[in-house]
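Budget justification aside, the reviewers requested a transparent look at the raw inputs and outputs of the sequence design task funded under Objective 1. We therefore reproduce one unedited record. The lines immediately below are the structure tokens for a 364-residue chain.
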């Protein structure tokens, strides 16, 4: 089946039921069981659409593995702990993390790996990468049995559907996806202003001037709430790393990326990745409401340096050829430099109350 049939399906649905929300559009386009962007392909790498931090360098997953080991020790080294990764992509982060923690055999033995992944293609890829591991897959976090856990989510929340709201002179309206009969293309449209739309907008942003756009991700809120509940009730920690805002702001960030370049959001649905900036203040607030404590967000560069990425790079360089040493330096720069992934990408940790400050986060 081609991407056009996903577009036709969307047009039919809109013709029958009327315009759909941006969140419904994203969910269909990204995770439709057969034709969704993630369901149908491995999008990573030079030949794909984008590269994520674990694909940039093994150092990323290794340091996260050591972060997990520190959490486990602070929990009193429980005999079993669930290591849950949300949206594990190719499984690279998990493989690097598990290799790094071999230095702590007791922790290594305690780990039960749980992967939350919707894409059948990526599940196969993860199974290949982690072929020597006992792994359990789940379609959603709620399916993972309760118990002490460490949750990792790298570039997961930015892929979750968002709703968009726009302030009109008469009030807040929702941005919808409709069908323009003249051009026969999918087109953005605005709902009438309503109190219902206004209710979705965080209170601090409700008085924004006309033209302001606000994005809200109900799916992210639900998943963070569930993750924080588990951590607070059963012990453990969560680590979210993603690109996004560190303070609440009215802005439109939804974007499409195909072949490492920006594309039109409504063009050829299913053939481009769709993401939006993660709203860290809202995620942190939701986690606290669920009974957990939060740390950060801090820039990815500061977080990785706090975990010792420069020292790790120096060790790898000592055993590397000139070409490999240059690649290690380039990866370090890409992951940590301010103008690269060092500041826009941020880390947020979720712990039980009284856990203390996890590694890589500033005290106080
Ligand atoms: C941008 S990729 C990040 C992959 C990986 N964490 C990395 O850093 O390379 C997003 C991942 O989340 C998965 N995903 C997207 N939406 C999902 C959902 N609603 N539930 C579970 N997994 C989802 C995708 O299939 C993919 O594995």
């Amino acid at each position: 089946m081609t991407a056009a049939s996903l577009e036709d399906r969307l047009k039919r649905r809109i013709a029958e039921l009327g315009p759909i929300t941006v969140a419904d559009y994203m969910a269909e386009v990204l995770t439709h069981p057969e034709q969704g962007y993630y369901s149908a392909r491995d999008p990573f790498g030079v030949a794909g659409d984008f590269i994520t931090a674990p694909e940039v360098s093994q150092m990323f997953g290794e340091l996260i593995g050591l972060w997990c080991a520190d959490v486990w020790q602070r929990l009193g080294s429980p005999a079993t702990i669930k290591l849950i990764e949300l949206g594990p992509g190719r499984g690279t982060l998990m493989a690097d993390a598990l290799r790094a923690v071999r230095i702590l055999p007791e922790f290594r033995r305690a780990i039960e790996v749980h992967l939350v992944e919707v894409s059948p293609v990526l599940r196969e890829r993860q199974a290949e990468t982690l072929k020597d591991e006992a792994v359990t897959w789940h379609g959603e976090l709620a399916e993972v049995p309760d118990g002490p856990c460490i949750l990792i989510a790298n570039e997961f929340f930015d892929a979750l559907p968002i709703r968009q709201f726009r302030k009109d002179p008469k009030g807040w309206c929702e941005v919808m996806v409709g069908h323009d009969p003249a051009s026969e293309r999918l087109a953005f449209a605005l709902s009438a202003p309503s109190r219902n739309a206004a209710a979705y907008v965080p209170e601090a942003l409700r008085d924004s001037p006309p033209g302001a756009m606000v994005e809200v991700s109900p799916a992210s809120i639900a998943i963070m709430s569930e993750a924080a509940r588990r951590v607070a009730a059963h012990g453990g920690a969560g680590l979210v790393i993603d690109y996004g805002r560190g303070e609440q702001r009215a802005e439109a960030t939804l974007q499409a990326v195909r072949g490492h370049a920006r594309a039109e959001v409504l063009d050829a649905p299913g053939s481009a990745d769709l993401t939006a900036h993660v709203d860290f203040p809202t995620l942190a607030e939701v986690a606290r409401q669920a009974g957990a404590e939060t740390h950060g967000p801090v820039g990815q560069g500061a977080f990785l340096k706090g975990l010792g990425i420069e020292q790790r790079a120096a060790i790898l360089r000592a055993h590397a050829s000139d070409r490999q040493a240059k690649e290690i330096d380039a990866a370090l720069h890409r992951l940590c430099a301010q103008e690269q992934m060092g500041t826009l990408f941020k880390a947020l940790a979720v712990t039980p109350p009284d856990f203390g400050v996890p590694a890589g986060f500033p005290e106080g």
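Residues 30-31, 38, 52, 54-55, 87-89, 93, 116-119, 122, 154-156, 159-160 surround S-adenosylmethionine (CB under 6 Å). The longest strand covers residues 171-180. Computational costs for records of this kind are itemized in the attached budget.
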